[in-house]
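Figure 3 (text version): structure tokens given as input.
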């Protein structure tokens, strides 16, 4: 094992990083999706996970609101140049000026991904994850099974609790890879 890898492993054992859950979803979802996202954020934060999202409204804001309510940390990867566009529950806004290209950052930075509802931006995040061979948890989101996507690359979950439970398991598995 190269020296740099050994040093990294040693540092990780000394300073454990919290798991990062990427919550992706639509900016204008139905009320049920907002409720589910808020529950996901809250449940994940109570279990020590950091919430990572696109930082704007809809599912992103609801997940951050739930996490904030539980005392959790939230990161918003913003599409524009103004940090003030972040929803009020984003603790750490990350300004990218990258528009939807920021979706790749969210997918690559998260230890696990939960898609809730969603429009085409969410679909691009799902596609990035699938392209990287990363499993996506779908909570009333895109029907990727109808698109011929390999069943090993996604998993449908039916409740916020089920989504968080499964995401934390996946996050731990992804960290070990």
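Below: residues designed for each position.
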């Amino acid at each position: 094992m190269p020296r740099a890898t050994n040093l990294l492993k040693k540092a990780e054992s000394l300073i454990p990083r919290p798991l990062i859950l990427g919550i992706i979803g639509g900016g204008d979802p139905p009320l049920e999706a907002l409720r589910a996202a808020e529950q996901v954020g809250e449940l994940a934060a109570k279990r020590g996970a950091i919430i990572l999202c696109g930082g704007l409204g809809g599912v992103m804001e609801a997940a951050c609101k739930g996490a904030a309510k539980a005392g959790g940390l939230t990161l918003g990867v913003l599409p524009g140049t103004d940090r003030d566009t972040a929803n009020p529950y984003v603790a750490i806004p990350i300004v990218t000026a990258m528009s939807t290209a920021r979706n790749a950052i969210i997918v690559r930075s998260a230890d696990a991904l939960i898609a809730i509802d969603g429009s085409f931006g969410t679909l691009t995040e799902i596609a990035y994850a699938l392209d990287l061979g990363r499993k996506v948890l779908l909570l009333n989101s895109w029907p990727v099974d109808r698109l011929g996507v390999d069943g090993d690359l996604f998993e449908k979950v039916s409740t916020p609790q089920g989504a968080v439970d499964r995401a934390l398991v996946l996050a731990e598995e992804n960290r070990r890879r």
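The chain has a mean pLDDT of 93.
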